[in-house]
Amino acid sequence: MKTIIYNTRGTCSRMIEVTGDNGTVVDVKFFGGCHGNLQGIGKLVKGMKYEDVINRLNNISCNGKPTSCPDQLCRAIEQLMAEENR
């Protein structure tokens, strides 16, 4: 099991803590941002394969910005994948 802290860019949330194990999301915590919505996203992706989360949430924009909290979660998961493969 591996946990990373990802500092978001271009979103209301400041940070995402992602725990994964063997290609599956175990837990997600967002810091800052829309608390209720981000708790919901965290619960929805628990138990999902990394690739499935990325396929569903990649490139979602927010209020005309080129990114969003779900999109930043994809970046966090990509970082987690890279660290697990080291």
Strand content: 25-35%
Major sheet strand order: 1-2-3
Overall, the morphology is globular
What is the percent of helical residues? 40-55%
Q: Which architecture would the CATH scheme give at its second level?
A: 2-Layer Sandwich
> Regarding CATH, which class?
Alpha Beta
Ranges where pLDDT stays below 50 over 5 or more residues in a row are none
Report the count of strand segments: 3
The CATH topology is: Enolase-like, domain 1
Going by helix content, strand content and strand pairing, the class is alpha+beta
**String of helices and strands:** EEEHHH
Query: How far is the N terminus from the C terminus?
Result: 14 Å
User: Which whole number gives the mean pLDDT?
Assistant: 96
Count of alpha and pi helical runs: 3
Largest sheet: 3 strands, antiparallel
Q: Return the domain count.
A: 1
**Rg for CA atoms:** 12 Å
Architecture overview:
It is a single chain. This protein has 86 residues and is of the alpha+beta class. It has one domain: Enolase-like, domain 1, CATH 3.30.390. The protein has helices at residues 35-45, 50-57, 69-84; strands at 2-7, 13-21, 24-32. Helix 2 (50-57) packs antiparallel against helix 3. It is globular. The relative contact order is 0.24.
What is the secondary structure topology, with strand pairs?
Elements: E1 2-7, E2 13-21, E3 24-32, H1 35-45, H2 50-57, H3 69-84
Antiparallel strand pairs: 1-2, 2-3
Helix pairs in contact: 2-3
